[in-house]
């Protein structure tokens, strides 16, 4: 599918709604090939949660982006 058609936000909307309805199922692992794609997904998640909050749906939700060894590892030789 072409970019810009809303695939990511559609997927995130469905998952967030499902997780709010079934609170015992609260983990999502979203994998992507590149760091910019993960950053874009996190930005979409932020926009989605802001939208939900603006419509009275205040929820506890944590989204964390984990990317490459270069960004995660504190060892100087890596």
Automatic annotation (TrEMBL):
<dbReference type="Pfam" id="PF06733">
    <property type="entry name" value="DEAD_2"/>
</dbReference>
<dbReference type="InterPro" id="IPR045028">
    <property type="entry name" value="DinG/Rad3-like"/>
</dbReference>
<protein>
    <recommendedName>
        <fullName>Helicase ATP-binding domain-containing protein</fullName>
    </recommendedName>
</protein>
<dbReference type="GO" id="GO:0005524">
    <property type="term" value="F:ATP binding"/>
</dbReference>
<keyword id="KW-0378">Hydrolase</keyword>
<dbReference type="GO" id="GO:0016787">
    <property type="term" value="F:hydrolase activity"/>
</dbReference>
<keyword id="KW-0067">ATP-binding</keyword>
<dbReference type="InterPro" id="IPR027417">
    <property type="entry name" value="P-loop_NTPase"/>
</dbReference>
<dbReference type="InterPro" id="IPR010614">
    <property type="entry name" value="RAD3-like_helicase_DEAD"/>
</dbReference>
<dbReference type="GO" id="GO:0003684">
    <property type="term" value="F:damaged DNA binding"/>
</dbReference>
<dbReference type="GO" id="GO:0006366">
    <property type="term" value="P:transcription by RNA polymerase II"/>
</dbReference>
<dbReference type="GO" id="GO:0005634">
    <property type="term" value="C:nucleus"/>
</dbReference>
<dbReference type="InterPro" id="IPR014013">
    <property type="entry name" value="Helic_SF1/SF2_ATP-bd_DinG/Rad3"/>
</dbReference>
<dbReference type="GO" id="GO:0045951">
    <property type="term" value="P:positive regulation of mitotic recombination"/>
</dbReference>
<feature type="domain" description="Helicase ATP-binding">
    <location>
        <begin position="1"/>
        <end position="78"/>
    </location>
</feature>
<keyword id="KW-0547">Nucleotide-binding</keyword>
<dbReference type="GO" id="GO:0003678">
    <property type="term" value="F:DNA helicase activity"/>
</dbReference>
């Amino acid at each position: 599918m072409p970019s810009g058609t809303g695939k990511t936000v559609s997927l995130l909307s469905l998952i967030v709604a499902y997780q709010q309805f079934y609170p015992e199922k609260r983990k999502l692992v979203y994998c992507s090939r590149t760091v910019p794609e993960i950053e874009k997904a996190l930005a979409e998640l932020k926009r989605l949660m802001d939208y939900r909050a603006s419509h009275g749906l205040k929820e506890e939700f944590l989204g964390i982006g984990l990317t490459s060894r270069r960004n995660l590892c504190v060892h100087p030789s890596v």
